[in-house]
Amino acid sequence: MKYTRLYIAALVAAGMWLTSCSHNDDGPTELEVGRTEMNFPSTGASQTLIVRSITQPAARTDASWLKAGNVAPSGNGNIMWGVPLTASANPEGSRTAILTISAAESSIDVKITQQGGAN
Fold it and tell me: Which is an annotated Pfam family here (predicted)?
């Protein structure tokens, strides 16, 4: 009976240890972006989108007027990444683009809007 209680106590302690080690609050579990919408002025500009991911993310855009630069570490070890974005000048009406950020098996779309010079 004494060994049975000791065995059960050991199993409970091992289960608690495994449960506490399986969840990590120090970093993202998949992929997070700082913003899901961004705005650029008609004159064109550069901005950086901050991304949290345990693996280096990739960025691609569906518009020729919006360029996504090389993703680089942005502090806090290797879980914070900066995605440099540059929008060219827009002399016409407002326009939108979708920036897709992906890492591992996750992806997030960010809506990019640029004001037009004609407005």
Answer: BACON
